[in-house]
Amino acid sequence: MRASSYFAPTLREVPAEAEIPSHKLLLRAGYLRKLGAGVYTYLPLAWKVIRKMEQVLREEQELINCAEMRMPTLVPKELMEETGRWGLDVVYKLQDRRKADFALGFTHEEVITDLARQELRSWRDLPVMLYQVQTKFRDEPRPRGGVIRTREFLMFDAYSFDRDVDAMDTSYKAQRTAYERFFQRIGLRYLIVDADGGAIGDLDNQEFMSLADAGEDTVLSCDSCSYAANAEKCPVNPPATSETATSVSLEEVHTPNARTIDEVAAFLGTASSMFIKTLIYSADGKPVVVLVRGDHTVNDVKLARLVGAAELELAPEAMVVAVTGAPVGFAGPVGLTGVPIYADHAVTVLQSAVTGANKADFHITGVAAGRDFTWTVAADIRVAEDGDSCPMCTSGTMRTTRGIEIGHIFKLGDKYSKAMQLDVTGDDGKLQAIQMGCYGIGMSRSLAAIVEASHDKDGIIWPISVAPFEVSIVVAARQDDAQYAAADAIYKSMKAAGLDVYFDDRDERAGVKFKDADLMGCPIRVVVGKGLATGVVEVKQRGTDVVETVALADIIQRVTVLKQQLLTALNPATHHV
RNA sequence: CGGGGCGUAGCGCAGUUGGUAGCGCGCGACAUUUGGGAUGUUGAGGUCGCAUGUUCGAAUCAUGUCGCCCCGACCA
To answer: How far is the CA of A551 from the C1' of B69 (A)?
Structure first.
């Protein structure tokens, strides 16, 4: 491709809307433009990267016998109602001229399951794995981070259909391997973490996380074993030792205007870890009391699963007053009756704690768990934190980092097949529900994740497997006939040699072209300039400062070898994450 | 949806006590330059997000509204 007739509008200044590196660079380097909040146009460069990612994905899916297909974007309301998802807030809805309702596909379990139940008859038809790469629509409450979370985005989604749980496990593992190879080949380092399945279910599911400061998720990983989990999933070990019982007695203390843990802790001069944080939740409209240590945070996901509530949120003020008899900020477990009390393990060993007195402007000190209050259920309901002991190997320590969720694989079991009567005749002649799995990769998000992980102050540094161009040629002085002729000849022969090459033949000053080349981020740069007088050109790898001088006659050969080396470095057989 | 911030030229921004708009970059032309975002001369480009109101007069004040960004909620 010749720059003189290409469309890659670069910006010298960073648009005010961008904050994270990938967003800034993708805008500046001419990959993306915003149309509205969470709605982006992928300019030629970005689209080319996406297409290259897709190609790698296709090769890997082919290896596990997963076939590409394409489902509609318009999904009839009736189908969505079968699984109860028509009413979800994230669904974009529209009507046709006959007033028929449709959803814009935000995922395709319903469509694929409908197809499968019409076509799959016998266990002999299984297994089947299918995938597509398609635009998804979700009415996100808050799009953010450029292309990290958008309302319209490109996603790979695959679905597996198996006769039983063992076969489903096999499909799940095959996809996991395909994912590992895919991410390695596109040069994106990742961590596989245990995750919460959200509304889709609570069977085995794992997320592929690209570690980045701009990530939306908190990831905990063990510094000793290989265990890692999303913070919303990560189990917390119960306290190893219980505190020795003390004979401190209860004392009511006046704490005027001190409502938060920090305020009361400062007022009393007591550490927040000695507090019992008492929160009133509304679980499907009914009050529930939750106790965690003052320095801990309630894990809403764990709590919702424990309580078994569909809707769980902090109770409105009126409910708090009704339950505790005090305004918000003075709740405590002592003397609370008639409401289920869920206590985190860490709370059940406290022996001289501070908590609210269920009375305005008063707290109680010297509170002993078991002696002064009891609980309905003691469980793990707090968010895991940096420094916690590992729930798997118990000898390691968990450390936190931020991560971008680039892939998620799920075992669905029979959740959708039962809801939608997807069954086949088994080898015993009886109908049985199919075991499903579903697998997703955020393509546009992965694009951003690569940039987050691979850039410097000058621009993007693409892994060669997905770079928009493998090589970029810069003619230092376009108006020098000899230079231009040489560069043009190199360009043509590189194309003939099968290299994906970008030729910056614009009549710009050399500096401008160098800056743009760095921004764009192609892995190999060839400069045709002064050296031409002695028959040489320069070769430089993006991200390094080593400049190689290569004889004109050897340039194709040299660049081809370099390309091969860079590709080999990304090969799953040799590339260890 | 709650909290905070911002809407003025393609991009980044300024605009005083209310008097009908400016700077830098970018863009066009010309000249001089030419290996890391050149310099000079000159030129084009704006219903100041939108609406209503106050006023002789509104980018500026008031009310409303729309949009965008960040934090939180939310995120199959």
So the answer is: 50
| Residue closest to B33 C1′ by Cα | A509
Does position A57 have pLDDT exceeding 90, yes or no? yes
A501: Cα separation from own chain's centroid? 32
Angstrom distance, A349 CA to B64 C1': 56
A284 is near strand B: CB distance < 7 Å: no
Mean pLDDT over A437-459 rounds to 97
Q: For residue A509, say whether its CB is under 7 Å from any atom of strand B.
A: yes
Tell whether the model's pLDDT for residue A446 goes beyond 90: yes
The arithmetic mean of pLDDT across residues A545-569, rounded, is 97
Give the tens place of pLDDT for each residue, A16-43: 999 999 999 999 999 999 999 999 999 9
A142 CA to B3 C1' in angstroms comes to 14
**Cβ contacts of residue A502 below 8 Å, gap of 6+?**
A1, A3, A6, A468, A469, A471, A472, A473, A520, A522
Whole-number distance in Å between A139 CA and B51 C1'? 28
Instruction: Say what the pLDDT of residue A575 is.
Output: 45
Nearest Cα to A333, choosing from A322, A324, A320?
A324
CATH of A469-569, one of 3.40.570.10, 3.40.50.800, 3.40.50.11890, 3.40.190.10: 3.40.50.800
